[in-house]
Amino acid sequence: MACSYGRAILLTCRRSISYSAPRYIRRECADPLEHATGIEKREKLAHLAGEEDPFNLNVTKRGPGTKECPNLVPSAFNSRLVGCICEEDHSHINWMWLHQGTPRRCECGYWFKLVEKAPV
């Protein structure tokens, strides 16, 4: 009798397992653009529009750099800090502030000018 009593308790304690339909529905990951907000969303939209460097943070090569044809530095502000590596093999960077409207000459002789760029 003790054996059948234990078996009855074991059978009543078992729960049947059921699977709901949503488990088998294929779920897609949401688009990251839908979840992005603020500056992150504007950066993603700029990348989709084809602009690889929306904040102009990449290193650019110097052009002729004369007073008549200075190197143009885009900025959404009235001033910007610019670093110039005067010689290719040097690790020293000459830093200078560029202000809107006035070109500035580096110690190495290259000229730089700040030009207006629309903010992202």
Automatic annotation (TrEMBL):
InterPro entries attached to this UniProt entry: Cyt_c_oxidase_su5b, Cyt_c_oxidase_su5b_sf
The keyword Zinc is annotated on this UniProt entry: yes
Pfam family name, one: COX5B
Gene3D superfamilies, A to Z: Cytochrome c oxidase, subunit Vb
UniProt keyword Glycoprotein, yes or no: no
Alphabetized UniProt keyword annotations: Metal-binding, Zinc
Top-level division of the source organism's lineage: Eukaryota
Name of this chain's protein: Cytochrome c oxidase subunit 5B, mitochondrial-like
Lineage: Eukaryota, Metazoa, Ecdysozoa, Arthropoda, Hexapoda
